[in-house]
Amino acid sequence: MSAKHIILIGPMGSGKSTIGHLLAQRLGREFRDSDHYIEERTGVDIPRIFDIEGEEGFRQRETRALQDLVRLDNLVLATGGGSVLREENRRLLKENGFIVFLDTSVEQQMERLRHDKKRPLLQTENPRERLEKLLEERRPIYLQLADLHLRTDRKYARKVAADIIPLLPEHLRRHG
Ligand code: S3P
After folding, report:
1. Which distant-in-sequence residues (6+ apart) come within 8 Å of 137 by Cβ?
2. Distance CA 173, CA 29 (A)
3. Nearest atom, ligand 1, residue 38 CA
């Protein structure tokens, strides 16, 4: 069966939500973001979930969110940066979507996330070091999972979205 969703993976600050939104608009697809879905479902924001349930609790909610979302039709789906950590998530994403890895440098992430208060993993003394470590651990996983790999450094989101479209399989380029 051919993939029905276009799924964006990559680290925090790689532009998954912004680019995903634009891509969905241009393709006439519905855009969903797994972090937003989790917040809607729980009625609290992600920092609060981390506070109360820890990262493990958040990861469980993330898996359930992905399970729910892949059941919908023809999405552009932006995932959280850590969603690729669980084997069951990787399988779910791979089976249900064409996976686009938005690759970015830590430099660029820092520029985009410098003042961020919404990402619990970055509320540390040295966010740059944290981003470097996460990227080192996760980049091989993103690469392994990706059907398409694009750098988003210093490129406008509109340009990235436009660049992605001709690289999609034919059946995904057609409107929703
Ligand atoms: C996380 C990334 C965040 C969010 C949570 C954990 C991660 O999503 O899911 O804060 O582990 O990298 P974004 O990638 O959309 O920032």
Report:
1. none
2. 10
3. 9
Q: Two tokens at 37?
A: 């879905």
Mean confidence (pLDDT) of the chain: 95
The answer to whether residues 39 and 46 touch, using CB atoms and an 8 Å cutoff, is yes
Q: Are 13 and 21 in contact (CB under 8 A)?
A: no
CA of 90: how far to CAs of 23, 101, 156, in Å? 22, 13, 28
Give pLDDT, residue 154.
79
Quick one: tokens of 63? 């898996």
Q: Please give the share of the chain, as a percent, with pLDDT higher than 70.
A: 98
One-letter amino acid at 24 equals: A
- The band of 176, judged by pLDDT with boundaries at 50, 70 and 90, is very low
Residue 3's contacts (CB-CB under 8 Å, 6 or more residues apart) are 96, 97, 98, 169, 172
Q: Is 84 in the pocket of ligand 1 (CB under 6 A)?
A: no
